[in-house]
Structures are given as structure tokens and as C-alpha cells.
Amino acid sequence: MTKIQLNGREVEADPKKPLIAACHEHGANVPHYCYHPGLKAVGSCRICQVEVKQGEMPPRIVAACRTPVAEGMQVNTEAAKAHDARRECLEFLLKNHPLDCPICDKAGECDLQDYSYQEGQGEGRSVEPRRKLDKRKSLGDVILLDEERCILCSRCVRFMEEVPKTPQLTVAGLGSRSTIATFMDRPLSGNYQGNLADVCPVGALTLKKFRFQARVWNLRKSLSTCGECSRGCSITAEVLRGKEVKRFRPRYNDKVNKWWMCDSGRFALERHAEQAPGLGPRIAGALSRGQGAQVHEPIAAPSGVALAADMLAAHERRVVLASPWLSQEEGAALARIAQALGTTAGFVSPAPDGLADRLLHTGDPCPNRRGLTDLGFVALSVEECAARLAGCEVALVVGERAGELLREPLAALDASRRVALFEARALDAPAVKVQIGVPTHVEKSGTWINVDGHVGRLTIARAAPAGTPALTSSLRQLEEMLAAAAAGVVGDTGARR
Amino acid sequence: MVIVKRRELTLAERLYLPEIGRALALSLRAMFRKRVTRQYPEEPLPTNEVTRGQPRLVVKDDGNIACVSCGMCEVACPAYAITIDGGETDRAIEREPKRFDIDMLRCILCGFCEEACPKDAIYMSDELELADFSRQALVYDIEKLKRPRSALQKRIDYVNKLNDRWRKPSSTR
């Protein structure tokens, strides 16, 4: 560790990192556009200029992102000269930047806006017209480029080179006609394009899918964990008006995903919509299907759990299957139930989705595989699950997407079997006698354990449909009822119809 | 304590009939004087550019609304009366509201939306009346809020005049 003086305070700085990292670590908010802690520093925007005095030399203005930390360095981020340098730099950046903040999707989380308030002079002095460039340039299926808004920080170029290691972007042209371009105008490819919109400090690179969908200050951000593979990237789930999940963004986690996430996780939004293609409607409360009845009728969730308990207590040859989206807390409760029923629980482990890469995506679609394995669950392929279901009299299938993964085996069972399904979305199968609604992973709090053993937290980003209790409380109720049935207590549990 | 003695009536007053005649004469005279009562629903209140009525969306001369759904009025609204969903358009402006609802029952006619709008797209009209048979009918959508610029011109000029007081003479827009 190197000792430096930062704004008159003696602080310890990491000599492997540039000066700006030390400034940020110790609370000096030095503006930055081209610098990103996850990328190489190039010093192209010059907005991070600070005053540095070293030894007998008079103080100088330097770019903090390209200056290594040196012993005894005296850094003043608030010097009048440093402020002047940053303000002048910002004036040039704003010279050609269009004033379309009302239209721009970045407004509200834009570094250019923030630092204009912090450092800028409020009014431009330029009398020249702004440059006119392409405002809607498509860079593939994910990203749209607004050339006028670009400040040429080259973060996107470096991201593509350094993180997925697929250099596809470059700065083309000279002077004020420089633009970000792909080689030969080919569309971008790869599973990490969405990060470009995150690294862009201005509104130049935007997501086509999020374009004009919501103003960012209307989004309620909750910390969550991505559920699309066993990597379990830390993310924030952003919800508009308590209903629609509008986007997932990566959240810095040094041990798992750094600053990044893949597109398959980022755009896994469809299933969180009210109506998802190919999926049944959400279950609010529970649905029961009486003997010989053709349709499910809605009942309250506790009544549904009571029906499930009756079914499980009254029949032998039981099977307990879980979804790999189950949290540790829910998994522990289900493992106890399975033990009480005299069976070992398994979880559905679908085949790898073929999206595995060297960076983040593991290709294994089970976000809590490791945690459930630790709890004693057995990983079962869909075929193995089907075999278990075929040999059972009564089955307990628990968890978000469990019914979706086992749709065909469940539909193939004849009506004499009894399946109690705890699922987020309704499934129409003759064997499924009762379905109890559960919250999805953006609607519950809990824990997942990722492929490397790191804990991923889930928090409630939005409320589950009305009348849907947390799965942990449904399972606790089920456990109590089964215990009462096993002890031979005959009587009303108070929750039955 | 003050004891107020009632005034003794005069002879003419005590005779009663002359007083009736006097009162009738007063009524008769009033019939020919200028009336001060306004026949309100038939005869509307006078309005001027300072009147802050319900907010309305400006329709530009090319037939499109000026709003780009930036959400500034939504944020500024202290009564949470405004709900906006943005969307893409092929026009050069790129962005336009797909849904722009003002709940007129929530609106408190404060004019913050007008002040917040960076695109001069929402102005307080001189429309004040608000009556319907259901609450839902009083949540106005884009079609109900649209007004041609000419209908709001007086207010637009007035607001520009107000804003000019705060503008530096050197600044150009």
C-alpha cells in the first residue's frame, strides 16, 4: 500500500490501481467518463483532471485515471485549477451533445447530466451549429447507437475487446466526424451486448428492448440474483409502478459477475409479464380440481394446502420433486416434508441450454443446484422425474417453473394419480388435483447458492398476485398438517373448505 | 353592559300602509336597475390568460402533439394525477406518449406541469368545468386532453412573458 495525501488527508492507496480509484475509494467524487474500474484506462475524456503536487515540483493538473499512485503524492481534487480544467473539458463535451434529455432514455442516470450539475457552467458559449449525425443507427438486435449523443469515451470499444474478448467495435472517422462503428457495419454478435448500454456513460448506446419503456426514476430497484443459470449473477430488478419488471441490470459483485451479466439473463423478462407466451396464467391463491371435474376452480391458498396435505397423508408411494429455482429456505422446509413422508426429494435438472461460455454463463439452467444438492436433494433429469412420477400414487411437485419443466410427464399421467403442484403458473393436467400459487424469484426473499458456492440474495422486487402466500409459509402449513395427520389427530385444521 | 332601547316607531310607520308602499317602490326601482346576478351555467364566467384551468396538451400545427413523454410533469405533479407511458414514433422526435392520463379528480390545478414541461407541450387551459357520472370518465386520456395550439395561445403568450422575466437578456433559445 502506498501512502498519499488526498485533499489534506493521509490515505492508503493500492499502487496497482490508478489514482482515480484511490480518490473514489476515499470519498473524493472525481468525475469520469472513459474510466471504468473494469476496463483499461485510456484517458481520452479528460474529465477526471485533478491537481497533484509531488516533491519540489509546482502543482500540476493531471488525468487521475492515467496517473499511477506514488508515495508522498499530494492530491487536491477540489483545487480551483482542477475545477476549471474539468469545467472547460465539459464545455467541449457538451459542445456537440444534443439537448434531448427529455427524449433520452439515459436521463436520470446519465453521467453527463450529473457532472454538468456538479462541474458544468450551465450555459454554452458556442455559436456554431451542433454536428448532425445518425441518431438511429442499429448495431444489431440489442443495441441502438445515437451518434450525436456519443462523447467518444471508447468504453464500449474496450468492453468488447477486454471482457467478452470479441473486438467488434471501433472509433471510425476523424475529428468531429468520429463515430462508434462496427467493422464493415456488421451487426454486433455475442451474449454480452447488453452491457454496452450499461458502460455507456451517456445515452448513445441504448437497449432496443428498453427504449422508451420507462423513465428510470420511476423504476423501483431491488437487489436480486439472476435466475437463468447457475452462475447467479448479482443483479437489480427494476419494477415500474409495482407491476412490470422492466429490466435487470448487473450489480457489482467482485466474486461472481464483477460489473457484467449476459443477455440471456438480462432479457429474461417475458416470463415476468402478466401474460407470457407459452405459459399458463398466474395462480392467485390456489386451484382445485374435484373428482371427475374438468376444470380447476379457484380456492384460497390455505385450503389448497389442506387438500394437498389430505392427499399426501391418504396415499402411499409418494414422490417429492422440487424446482431448481427453490431457495435454500424453501428447500430446507421441503426436505423436512420429504423426510416426514418417507421419501427422498429430488429436483428437476433440465439439460444444459448450450449457452455456456468462458465468461459468466454456465449453461446449467438451475440457479440453486449447489444449494439443493447440499440440502440432500437428488438431481434428476426430466426423464428420471417422469419415471418417478409414473410409479407414484401421489406426488408433491414444488416450486416456480416445476410444472413448466415437467409439463409433459404431468400431462401424461392419468386422472387416478394425485399431484399437488406448487407453481407460479397454472397447468392443465388431469392428474394435477390441486395447484397452489407461489411467488416467483422476483417476488420472494431468500438465498441461492451459485456454482462456486457464493450466496446470492433475493429480495421482494414486487408483490406476488393477491392471495399468494410465501412458499415457506405454505410449506410450513403443509408440514404441520402432515405431522398432525401422522400423529392421528383427526379434526378440522381450520383451513379446509 | 349596554342597554339598547328599541327606537319608537313614528306615526307613519305605525300606520303600516305607507311603509308597504315604500317597500314596493324600492322593489319596482330595482327591477329597472342593472342586474348583478350571473346566470352561471348558461352564462359562463369570464376568463383571461391568468386563469389556471385544467391542463391540456398542445397539438402543434402539423397535427402532432408536442409532448415527448419525458415524464417531467409526472414527477412535478404534487397530486400524482399524471400517468405516462412512452413509446417510439417514426417522427424525428423519436419519442411520444402511448398513454397520457390525467386524473382530473386528483388534479389540483397548480400549474406545476406547465412549469416543468421542457417541450412547451402542456398548458393550463381556461376550462374549469368538471362533471360526469363516473370517476373513470374523469381520467382524461390523450384524446380528451388534446387542444389545438390556437385554443391555448393566450396562455402560452402569457407564460412566455412570465418566463422572460427570469431569462437573462443575453441568452438565446
What does this entry look like structurally?
The complex is a heterodimer of chains A (497) and B (173). Chain A has 497 residues and is α/β, with parallel strands linked by helices. Helices cover 24% and strands 21% of the residues of chain A. Chain A is built from 13 helices and 23 strands. An 8-stranded mixed β-sheet of chain A has the order 15-14-21-20-19-16-17-18. Chain A has a 5-stranded mixed β-sheet with strand order 2-1-5-3-4, with helices on both faces. Chain A has a 3-stranded antiparallel β-sheet with strand order 6-7-10. The longest helix of chain A is centred in the first third of the chain and has 16 residues, at 80-95. Chain A is elongated and about 90 Å long. The termini of chain A are far apart. With 173 residues, chain B is of the alpha+beta class. Chain B has a domain at 55-164: 2-Layer Sandwich (Alpha-Beta Plaits), CATH 3.30.70. Chain B contains 6 helices and 6 strands, in the order ααβαββαββαβα. In chain B, a hairpin with a 6-residue loop joins strand 2 and strand 3. The longest helix of chain B is centred in the last third of the chain and has 16 residues, at 149-164. Chain B is elongated. Classes of the chains: A alpha/beta (497), B alpha+beta (173).
